[in-house]
Amino acid sequence: MNVLAKQPRRLESYVGGQWVVGAREGVPLLDASTGVPVAFIDSSGIDFKSVLAYGRDKGGPALRCLSFHERAAMLKAIGQALMERKEEFYALSAATGATRADSWVDIEGGIGTLLSYASKGRRELPNTRVLLDGDLEALSKDNTFSAQHILSPLHGVAVHINAFNFPCWGMLEKLAPTLLAGVPAIVKPASQTAYLTELMVRRIIETGLLPEGALQLVCGSVGDLLDHVEGQDAVTFTGSASTGQRLKTHKAIVQNSVRFTMEADSLNAAVLGLDAAPGTEEFDLFVKEVAREMTVKAGQKCTAIRRVIAPRSYSEALIGSLRDRLSKTTVGNPADEAVRMGPLASLDQREEVRARIRDLSADAKIVAGDPDNPTALSGDPQAGAFLNPVLLYCEKPGSASSIHDVEAFGPVSTIMPYDTAEEAVDLARRGKGSLVASVFTNDPGFVEEVVLGIAPFHGRVMIGNRVSAKSSTGHGSPLPGLVHGGPGRAGGGEELGGMRGVKHYMQRTAVQGAPTMLSAVTGRWTAGSDVRADGEHPFRKSLAELKVGDQLITASRTVTLDDIEHFANFTGDTFYAHMDEEAAKANPFFDGRVAHGYLIVSFAAGLFVDPAPGPVLANYGVDNLRFLTPVNPGDTLRVQLTCKEINPRANAEHGEVRWDCRVSNQNDAAVAQYDVLTMVAKTRN
Ligand code: NDP
């Protein structure tokens, strides 16, 4: 299908395994620059109860059959396939009003997020279908009753209701963690830019990589879909606070305790430090960042800087610098390469932003830009939704309200002066909870006071200074590995944050029982679980032969004073506790000279290692190393090494094996406890 045809198309929804067109012709969606129809949207006639059931019954089980690594590999292949088609997305994205640079954030930023989840999923999650959360909780002295928290995928569907400003990224940043968790999704893009989301979903489905039912798309209203959500479903929403609040209190969502994540209006602040006077690098960086945040995506970004908090004595210089910079922003049709800022998403959206500027004008005066008389380098300034950047200044921000309450979702920011760091913190907090704030300063004292003062009101805080200037990802960029969301007005939700985002689609359960029963659930050996000692050294076994619980009890070795002195002189670690009897005795923890912890670990390796070449390929570290009892000359060490977890890698000839290593003395007291991490071949050569 040629979705880039010049004739406007009727968008289709992908539901129940097929592309369907709405029963009616639909509402026209207009090119943001020209006002010419791009597509028609309508979803009438879709049976939304069946759409939910299809996801739950078909997509869910198919995804849950796959391990985290298999799902991660699927995301990677989809990301690569989308990247190959990226020019097609760029071509259509221009109709949304996005410049090439704006589209890069949306298209390649979105695909990059998908690929990042693919790679993090493979590196940070085990190749299993259940996640362990935290350590084993011992509930009995004799190790017969313990507990382990686990996370398993919800058996429902994730309904993602997205905003118009990022038709690709907005979908992919939610889809990646959802699919990685093993949960199917129904995507509902905002109507205004749904044609771009529809194109991307079409290309995803065409890859044939996703199990049927894992991804459905609704172009147009979701009708009565929310009436049918259940306790295993999750709903995420990005958009206006008013719609978000209405959906959050929807009867079925409240009655069935459906997980609801909301990201709504956010009056993000940027604070200029008291030290960052005009002429400093931080001042220049601040000006650049504020202007950039005002103009990228024509300010239609949930993370854009709306409130510019600056020392009063620098305000005049700041207004001058920003006015200069903003006046150089060429506004127009993004099809023209000279254009740096495109139009807003629609004429309605421009009217909405103009109305909000009027609200802000109750407390602030316009110091740059004219909202009512746009100038455009190319395109008709009336037919296209063009709006030049508008900068306001509020003399008394402490007693004003609209500047802290009204989000003008466009290229609009307000400068608010402050005199003390405490006042800056107070002004930032007046946003009542935001997605992000940035602080530009080179003064660690200022940063400590301000960041700790505003952190509880923000999901992310970025500190800008001369050192990070070149490598900084900037105020406005949510990153796959970092939390995106904010408290209070920002909706109270949390997305991304690396593997944290995956867990939002999983249920945490505390499982209690005898260790062997817990191991059966978790796939991880714990103290007290059954062991197997079949006489063969576990290092001789390939992954195909090795079993969780395979155990080796080693021979013993007595530690001598000579050993300690040899180790001290050999390594150079002549710390008094190993070398000076009197000083060691005076230490409250020791009763005379003790062996080095690393000597114990080294002797342990000498006891448990099987030296001949074999399936064990490498030791890549230890986890959770603790020295529990001092070892004095004359003590005898023995090791109990147990296969704790086996994690075969997809598409590789080897996997990771975690060994529980307990080093004990002649009284069977544990002197050291840790996990040994090794790479082991899948088969014997
Ligand atoms: P809306 O809240 O109207 O829409 C957001 C999403 O919700 C869209 O997908 C919309 O679909 C959908 N929606 C609307 N009503 C319902 C409903 N009853 N049931 C289910 N879904 C529904 O916001 P807009 O996109 O119109 O943007 C308006 C304002 O929201 C902006 O001016 C800005 O202030 C704010 N906004 C904030 C964002 C943020 O991240 N902080 C992002 C985007 C907007 P449809 O488009 O089909 O109506």
TrEMBL record:
Domain MaoC-like: 550-658
Record domain Aldehyde dehydrogenase: where: 61-507
Cited InterPro entries: Ald_DH/histidinol_DH (IPR016161), Ald_DH_C (IPR016163), Ald_DH_N (IPR016162), Aldehyde_DH_dom (IPR015590), HotDog_dom_sf (IPR029069), MaoC-like_dom (IPR002539), PaaN-DH (IPR011966)
Region annotated Disordered, chain positions: 473-495
Pfam family, one: MaoC_dehydratas
Record's keyword terms, sorted: Oxidoreductase
Composition skew (Gly residues), residue ranges: 483-495
Protein name: Phenylacetic acid degradation bifunctional protein PaaZ
Organism classification: Bacteria, Pseudomonadati, Pseudomonadota, Alphaproteobacteria, Hyphomicrobiales
